[in-house]
Design a protein that fits this description.
13 helices; 7 strands; 288 residues; binds S-adenosylmethionine; alpha/beta; Rossmann fold
Length: 288
Amino acid sequence: MTSTHEQWDIVSGVGMTALAVAAARAIESHRDDRLINDPYAEGLVAAARSPALAEMENSSAEMLETMSGYLGVRTRFFDEYFLRAAAGGVQQAVILASGLDTRAFRLNWPEGLRVFEIDQPKVLQFKDETLDRIGAQPGSDRRVVPVDLRDDWASALDTAGFDASLPTAWLAEGLLPYLPAEAEAQLLATIDRFSAPGSRISIEHMTGPREEYVSDELRNLALEWGMDLQALFSTDERPDPGEVLAGRGWNVRREPTNEITAGYGRALPGLGERFAELGCMITAFREK
Ligand SMILES: C[S@@+](CC[C@H](N)C(=O)[O-])C[C@H]1O[C@@H](n2cnc3c(N)ncnc32)[C@H](O)[C@@H]1O
């Protein structure tokens, strides 16, 4: 499928945010009090050879530590979500905007469970080539779906072997802030259409006006790292995704991120605390 939208790779545009998240996971994996272990994150970051990222590591080690504190919580929460979903009988997982997420490789999936990863082509190509070189072996039936989520991604997912009659666990982690309102509405409508009874979705959600997530501190720092977060985040007005799903008959649960963080026994200073205060994780279930 040829996209009319702009393309990015792992060191440009919003692709760079996936690299920054992988760097945070690498840091988290080395903490004494780590909440997750991603053994591939460091290799992925090294392979990208991004001067902006090297700059980030040198100039803002403390800041990266803070952000990794938040991202460690987020990663752990969604790891547990997937493991519970798999134990509860879902047969497919779809990671929307997977970036450098390595769950298909590092989680203990039931035999044969299909994990679909959707992201832009160059992001997935970089990830596949790097993980191949490292010798990583997926612990699932992993399928990549290189497509833009503003295009007809449903057809691409179908072609990759998705079976809409099977219960599915969907994930939108670090995605919705970047999507225009129309693409988000399409995304939720497609998920609703493709979700058999027993399906579920988990979403990282920021409450309040979008402009407020990007404090001056975060904005300036991200700019130093080559990411213009203000330009990357969509400020379109849109309905709350939990309410959209509830309106379509899903059972919706919201967990404030600061409560999740406290539950893991972690304190998040500075910006991490701000993200946890503004955020919640929405998990929705389709019973029938
Ligand atoms: C902050 S990263 C999060 C990556 C991953 N979910 C994680 O937590 O590690 C944002 C990701 O969204 C992807 N993305 C943003 N807009 C997209 C779109 N329209 N189509 C496909 N991928 C998109 C980017 O390529 C990038 O990998």
